[in-house]
């Protein structure tokens, strides 16, 4: 798995970086992001944009080729987190531009994808507490969370500004008007809104304004949903189609919001995302929430990593979704160490919708279908779509046009997951005359279930349940009593055990780019999350769905990320002097790995115990994060040492950091794993050696009581010897920093070539009141 993935990434990088010199036609143009040495601008140019245009025309081949409007123009200029511009270039133009002395880098654009009521209470945030994180931070009232997403539906009650004070005086942002979005759409809650579509349109041509808005208004729903998770106001009553009734609230209900729309019908384009980072930091946001992901590439080719570095070095906390590529390993995205990477867990709430088969078997499933339901007590004919179409593969997946209405009408249809969206399969069955649908996971999906707002009576079942239903259909199809079934919708169930569980789809480690940095960092609620929803989008997200609802239930690491963004705003409000790294440290070292039954959190896809590669440091615990005792802080120069020790060239590093890098002192830091990160990850290559060892140096800062003595407890990964020196840290004042050394010795294990073995343990510092926990991961690799 690891070797095939690294081969794929290598090939992908070669395709990204090689700029062929052959003459290219206009159709070969692609968007590139160009970094320039900002202070090299000749004085003859009145501003940087004029200089960039001159640089472009000097390499342009437009005299011999026809260029479109989008080809001639600069797409965006960047001033804050990045210095340069983006433009459409042929490969030969990109190569010529790269050779200009003031051009530092020419980065190919990636297209990114979205990684799509009870959670504050499940997380222990209660408004009735007289003390605690919500009270201490005044609900985050002067902090600004920038949400980079699909825009926002400003009229939702989640974004009302009742009882909020004036807009913070530091705010420099704007409410940019556009289609169906006057400047009055903003208020004291939604204090800024911008949209970035130049990159999208330069690749795809002019947008279709009948299906999307040329404005910050959300025509998808994802951005409205994530914004209200981070900072939605208290709204009662809230529910989706009668499910999850109660109070809806975001993590930081009084924090201000700024919406930066970068995602459109064809995806989220890097040139637009970088422009949003640039604007958000200049506007004065405190937190950036980004529920978008793509292929993992080296940081100097990754616009999100570059934009996030600029944000973090300006004191802005950046949280990003880990991705929905789970449950396989090496699937985690947004892995830069200056980004807080968030995976998804379940909550103690469920929406059971069970399948009852004609043989009496009850098979558990989940759904948020809102009716009209199936006739109570009636059993319906049941078929497997894969047996009923001309092309068994297409029909098994219930793809558009694959089902025969004559065979489907009046029946419940079993469809397999894959290719088209889960809700779209229901629409295909409904259009073919089907009465209901059972959606079965594939082997790779395992037993993880996601509840959807289907357009017909439908439920989702796990992979083993799908196998059982198929066997039942096959065996009874040959008998006198043909197979039958019904779906029993049981509403909302609370107090579910075990919880939390690592969601099956949540992307997993190890970190494909920096194995010395454990990712994801933490997990947060991401399965079946209730949050605000736009007016003109049906809850299933399908164009034909004309139902309207103020809230919707969605799942994804997209939903987990804004939980952490909101918590970061609360922590920043309570501790204004904490850096982004200190906030992440507080969230990581206080996270928990035990579920509500007292055992290690389970992995939803297998039902077995999950590991640090699934949940990182664990599930966030907001109240404990408020008072972590100690924090692991990281400064900008520490990240530069990390990049030097990761074998990045000084030129590569300058692309990320905007400054000339000096790697001469990096060797003092030792190795990349010595970045002062709250988790510890050692990777040993077994080149015939029997014993191997490494060490980590870490520095902690006291943010608890002035006179505190911490003692260490080590739980070594099996097969290792771990020592910590000193084993006691005595602090005399708040803000004092002390260092310690962790030595890890490992013994070789028997492995086949190309395989690896991962074991985990922990290093915990305790003063009697605080437990400051760092996971310790040891990976043994057998080279090919």
TrEMBL record:
The keyword Magnesium does not apply. GO terms for biological process: proteolysis; response to symbiotic bacterium; response to symbiotic fungus; system development. It is found in: Secreted, Extracellular space, Apoplast. GO terms for cellular component: apoplast. Gene3D superfamilies: 2.60.40.2310, 3.50.30.30, Peptidase S8 propeptide/proteinase inhibitor I9, Peptidase S8/S53 domain. It comes from the Eukaryota. One of its GO terms (molecular function) is serine-type endopeptidase activity. The active site is at 149 (charge relay system), 222 (charge relay system), 558 (charge relay system). PANTHER family: PROPROTEIN CONVERTASE SUBTILISIN/KEXIN. Required for arbuscular mycorrhiza (AM) development during AM symbiosis with AM fungi (e.g. Glomeromycota intraradices). This is Subtilase.
